[in-house]
Design goal:
Immunoglobulin-like; 29% helix; alpha+beta; five-stranded antiparallel beta sheet
């Protein structure tokens, strides 16, 4: 009986030693800063030669992290004490947290010899730590910028919203932060939403007051891990100007799904396309008309490739003038973009103007939407057909206008208000008027002489101080200051009279006068000056306005609406510059 008991114990010991499975997962630490990487280690230990994993490691839900990298290895050894084969499978995963706070990491599953083993879940704590960047001089370690992007996993060309905050223990320092410069990089497109400062929150993290400086949209235009560069700003004091920068944020940009149409380019969002004729006159052969391709919706509107008008032997088409009316929306930039084409029909009769095929990807439904081609059917007339179709009143009006423009008509004379000649001339009245004029002239000369003597005595008694260089420069600038409102009124009259050549000449003259006011000779130097003293937004708006003026100036067709929008943009920008 005793020998049987010893045999059973020996058998159980052999089973335990030859068939033991250990599976566990751990992190390198339990608390992390906002920018730290979470390293997970998964270990599967098999003690025995008959144990073989039937599945790979089945990971838990890691959607709250960005998987940066992973790796695995296998170790095999023999325990000399028990003469047992030990196999270790080790995997490591590097994760970047998307959110702050306590995040739960679930169990890892693996099947060994038809039995499922799992690890115990645990929590990791991600602290909301501000990326601290030191300042120079007396503002060192007092003001910090932090860029926050909540949704860090998006599709290519899909926007994500970034919020820039400033933190400081001294609320007075928050009012000194200005001149925010948004990031620039080839693989992202950035569009501002708002530069309005929010109310100061005195109860921020780590006993620091905070304030929102800017909100902007980031459109990554390539797949993979894209790093959004730092945002910079300046902190101005009485003595100097210091620069501060924010943290960088890494995005996990998903590649667009397969199955896109061949003519799909980069439109991501929800859009609609239409084409129409903006010309009001009848369409005549070899006379230009204005055809507009309109793309409206919400998404990456400012950065997408617009569908063009397809060339045809029935008409000639020229490069379009692009007009954008876009504002920030909830899922991208929303509004409309108008591409105005000059089209010249080559033949009389029906003409079909077609656009390129257009398709876009809708992130909401995760599907491609094919809008196909848009067609505009027109009917062109020859010159003789246009003349025959005119009514009698139109023919009379045209004949009258031609007559008034080409024939010199005699001047009409009237005697209604003619002054009748008097028979007798009054010399007394003439002499009296001459005496009054001579007396007034002598009094004026005496007054000017007295005024000069008084000014000379006053200048001799109290010499005028020279003043500083800054005061002198300010005085000269005030002397050279241009009355910009006179230009605005004159431009309004030229626009209403459709004198567009004089309109653009006056615009150029106004720009030169404004640049002289700030001692800048060229447009390039003036743009750099605006970027330093008015901010990047004003400088960029000035550059875009100059390009828009050149495009509108040399456009063969000019619409009243386009000139009205151009004048509004000129008034808004130059009013800011001349403040």
């Amino acid at each position: 009986m005793q020998q049987k008991l010893i045999y059973i114990l020996f058998l159980l010991t052999s089973v335990i030693s030859y068939g033991q499975v250990n599976l566990f997962m751990e992190s390198d630490k339990s608390e992390y800063n906002g920018k730290d990487i979470v390293n997970l280690t998964i270990v599967l230990e098999l003690n025995g030669i008959d144990l073989e994993p039937q599945t790979r490691f089945q990971l838990p839900d890691l959607s709250k992290f960005n998987i940066i990298g992973s790796g695995s290895m296998t170790n095999t050894l023999i325990d000399p004490a028990t003469n047992t084969l030990i196999t270790q499978k080790i995997s490591r995963i590097a994760l970047e947290p998307k959110k702050r706070g306590k995040i739960k990491i679930g169990s890892v599953l693996v099947t060994v010899n038809n039995k499922i083993y799992k690890t115990e879940p645990f929590d990791v704590n991600i602290k909301d730590i501000i990326d601290k960047r030191s300042l120079a001089s007396n503002l060192s370690n007092e003001v910090y910028l932090n860029m926050e992007i909540e949704d860090r996993e998006v599709y290519q060309d899909q926007p994500t919203v970034a919020v820039l905050k400033v933190y400081s223990k001294n609320m007075d320092n928050l009012r000194k932060v200005k001149d925010v410069h948004l990031p620039r990089q080839n693989n992202i497109n950035v569009h501002p939403i708002s530069f309005s400062k929010s109310e100061i929150d005195p109860s921020g993290s780590n006993n620091m007051a905070s304030q929102v400086l800017a909100v902007f949209m980031v459109f990554p235009n390539e797949a993979g891990y894209v790093e959004v560069p730092s945002v910079s700003a300046s902190v101005s004091t009485y003595s100097n100007k210091n620069k501060i920068v924010s943290n960088k944020v890494k995005l996990n940009v998903k590649r667009l799904p397969e199955g896109s149409p061949d003519y799909f380019k980069n439109a991501v969002g929800n859009f609609n396309v239409s084409v129409y004729n903006a010309s009001k006159e009848k369409i005549e052969v070899k006379k230009p008309i204005n055809v507009v391709v309109k793309v409206s919706g919400e998404g990456n509107l400012p950065d997408m490739h617009l569908p063009k008008i397809v060339s045809s032997p029935d008409y000639e088409v020229f490069a379009p003038k692009i007009t954008s009316k876009v504002v920030p929306g909830t899922t991208g930039m929303k509004g409309e973009i108008l591409a105005s084409y000059v089209v010249i029909p080559k033949k009389a009769g029906p003409i079909s103007i077609q656009t390129e095929k257009f398709a876009f990807f809708d992130p909401a439904s995760r599907e491609y939407v094919d809008l196909g081609q848009k067609t505009l059917d027109l009917n062109a007339f020859s010159h003789d057909q246009i003349l025959e179709s005119r009514t009698t009143v139109e023919k009379v009006n045209e004949y009258t206008n031609t007559l008034l423009e080409t024939v010199d008509t005699p001047v009409l004379k009237t005697t209604t208000f003619k002054v009748k000649e008097k028979s007798k001339f009054h010399w007394n009245i003439l002499l009296t008027n001459i005496s009054i004029l001579v007396g007034l002239f002598i009094m004026y000369l005496l007054f000017k002489t007295w005024q000069k003597k008084r000014a000379l005595v006053k200048e001799t008694a109290t010499p005028k101080p020279l003043g500083s260089v800054a005061e002198t420069e300010k005085e000269i600038r005030e002397t050279l200051k241009t009355d910009i409102n006179d230009y605005f009124s004159y431009l309004e009259n030229l626009k209403d009279n459709e004198d567009y050549q004089k309109f653009f000449d006056t615009l150029e003259e106004m720009d030169i006068d404004v640049r002289k006011q700030y001692f800048q000779s060229s447009s390039q130097d003036f743009r750099l000056f605006l970027e330093s003293y008015k901010g990047l937004a004003v400088a960029e708006e000035y550059r875009n306005l100059l390009q828009r003026i050149q495009v509108e100036k040399y456009s063969p067709l000019k619409s009243a609406e386009g000139m009205e929008d151009l004048l509004k943009a000129v008034v808004n920008l130059y009013s800011q510059i001349s403040k």
